[in-house]
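TL;DR need structure tokens for one chain.
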Amino acid sequence: MSRKAVDTRKRVRVAKPFVFARLLFVFGLILLAGIALVVRIAYLNKNKGDAYERKVLAQQSYASNVLPYKRGDIVDRNNNKLATSVKVYNLILDPVQILSDEKYIKPTIKALVDVFGLKEEEIKKILDKNSQVQYYVMKEYKGLKSTYVEKIEKLQKKDKNIKGVWFEEEYVRKYPYSSVGSNVIGFCTSDNTGSWGIENYYNSSLNGVTGRRYGYFDADLNLVKTVKPATNGNTIVSSIDVNIQGILEQHMKKFLKDVGALNMGCIIMNPNNGEIYAMASNKQYDLNNPRDLTGFYPQKKIDKMSDKDKMDALSKIWRNFCISDAYEPGSTFKPFTVCAALDEGITNTKRTYLCDGGQDVNGTYIKCVAHGIGGHGQINICQSLMKSCNDVMMQLGADMGKDTFLEYVNTFGFGARTGIDLPGEAVGGIFTKDTMHSVELATSSFGQGQTVTMIQMAAGFSALVNGGNYYEPHVVKEIDSESGAVVSVNDDKLVKRIITEKTSKLLRNYLYKTVEEGTAMPAQVEGYTVGGKTGTAQKHPVGHGNYLVSFIGCTPVKKPEVVIYTVIDEPKVEDQAHSTPATEFSSQVLTDILPMLGIYPDKKDSKKVTSDTNIKLPSTKKGNKYLEEPEGGAIDKDYKVASGKEGTDE
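>> reply
TL;DR here they are.
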């Protein structure tokens, strides 16, 4: 080993004690600094802790709770509440505050026992289990009335030691008339989301803005509260008359009980501005419990349903037949064909037509309703409506040609949404210039082949009888703020002019004669001039005897104030091929509602018509002179069968 190596080892041995001493010195300094810091903190906490705590708390804020808004009411045209939100209270406990001082526990527990009937042991168990919780919802005590709040507040004023008990506000949606107008009103979920009807369409207007209650501690540890109030939703003023709606639904329930039908719908509206007075489908449900299937299915069947099956069943119940289903209208479409021909100058009051029982259209023989008796003979345009003659309609369609005919079909609003302020509106199905040929033109002229919706028919017919003005149909008149100020108005939404006043006047006379002497005689209402047209559309596949029967009419004839449109899909009668069930139903409804609308008799001499609420079973006698013969299945088997769209739901 070299001398140099030995010297190195000696230097290392000499350096080690010096390094350890230096490290020990540094550690000692750190320890002393730590002790000094602890002493200083203890000193500050003892002498200035409160001051510093105040400074910290003064810089902190907290949000106490959300203040819910009240969803706006839905009222009828007479300010009757159809939907409203009721304030309720949920019981909340703050176990931390209750247990923070021994003097709070006993009086607080006693107050809960006295007001809510809770057991003392039960309360103690909740407090012990949630001793670190400041927000505990008493689930069994949600949706309380204000009387409970008043009782607790009264006790708290007497005894300041009752702590940690408070109430959270919320609103619950209520429907005072239960099922009345359910298809129009719709319902609301717990999170203020509208489903179906007005509740859905006007959801954003009905909803408000939530508020919030803030709080913070000032420098003296005093709690300062700040409240940002909630903004409540707007009130929706509907055009619905709850009394008219209720009467309509009563008649419908009775008809379905006494007669029965696969489906049914009825619209009552003001033809002069598009307001809907009443609209009903055959399935009304409880808006306060919209998911209850017990009134529609046996409990055993409900128990076997999957969640999907239940939702499908509910969707069918909630569906509004009057706007969401399309079908072939049958002869109620004939007034539109006549109006188009009159307006184009293709026909007039003096011209006559020969009905020999049908028409050979490009190799396809299409029958008239009077085929079995050799046709209606020589008749004019008015008589063609009175007798519901398919032959004359086909002649009018051929004279117009498909281009002109389709132009009017579009002008009348078919094949497009009307714009009614309800969700789920269907459009129906109409031919185009490429798909309409001679046979399709012939069948469409009397209401077969193309599909429509009830609201399309009611809106279009209103324009035919009101002088030619097409108004957008609507179920809401206006939107008001909580203070009563008008936010927006839906009245008198004139869209276009579709026919002349002269044509409209002629049509009203023809429709009046149809009710007085033609196929629509059961629609008469004692003391009133009623005009209207019947329909019996055979459903596909033909030959099964299934029909959709209908009536559309107006009163008073000189200046119509009400339009009614009734559709009955497969009435449960022996012979469905007659419109009598729809015409009689419409007559009975009009008899009850016209005085309520302030529309009084305008006719001195009239035949007596049943005016009570008893719905008469429809007659199916072949010999009844006013019964309309079937319009569907009118194609002779010896000829090529015409194509057409099936008249079932869209």
